[in-house]
Specification:
- Strand 7 (174-178), helix 6 and strand 8 (201-203) form a beta-alpha-beta unit.
- The protein has helices at residues 84-97, 105-109, 116-128, 133-150, 161-171, 183-192, 216-225, 239-248; strands spanning 36-39, 53-56, 67-69, 71-74, 81-82, 156-157, 174-178, 201-203, 232-236, 252-255, 272-274, 284-286.
- With 288 residues, the protein is of the alpha/beta class.
- The longest helix has 18 residues, at 133-150.
Amino acid sequence: MSEHSNQAPNPSIDGVIGTEMPETGRMTGTSPESGVFVAEQESDGDAPKEEAKKIRYRAKPKFPMPVPAKVLLVDLDGTLLDTAPDIAMAINQMRAAFGFGPLETGVVRNYIGRGIAHLVSESMKNAVGALGASASKVAVAQFEKQYESCLTQTTRPFPGVFEGLQLFREKGFKLACITNKAERFTLPLLEATGLAAYFELVLSGDSPAEKKLRPLPLHHAAKHFAVKIDEVVLIGDSMHDAAAARAAGCPVFIVAYGYNEGQELRGLDCDAFIDDLPSALKYVRVAA
């Protein structure tokens, strides 16, 4: 199926098909340097463009470094895998099915992280406003249908992911993947990208009763591995990972390249910013 299929409008979205509103949103980004946000200076007239300034972010560690841990929990979207292009493709196929034009990938990327219902709701907001319960159900079903068809088309692990997971395993850490993504998409993605074999446990958004930013998934993982919660470290890319870890009472490291709903990392409450997964080993050691 093409990315921008032209289909007749579907009146099942609560009978509301409005005039499409202008699409907005601009990506913010982080440099490969640990915890560094890059803001580009725009040139003035014919003046040469200034070199991008690098603003260093300081973490707010609540635990002594390096953290003694037995289990590393790793987020999926924006941490292990760059899933945004395929998600944006599915979102735009969904919008086309209802008669609306596409959104830029950068806009859709900012909606990733809170689960499918939030992603779909935000992606339809500029077309029909807030979705009611029945409209949300219809739109989510359409998105899931489209996403299944392009789930692994362009999704790839971020640089350093394989190296980092291999190093973690060699050091003796237990590994789990923890995500707000539905299991029907999580497991096939891990298999298709060659990451599944690294994880002893996979917790998806519909596995425990709650999603991150709630602490329940982290406590569930600690119980599974029979360790104390402060012997678990969460590695993620967003404010939701940081909030979940703080609520659970475990350390959290944030990668500098992730999504974080398009927000810069300034002020994020975490124990360390890391360049990539191998960099985490600067801040964690295997607990006795």
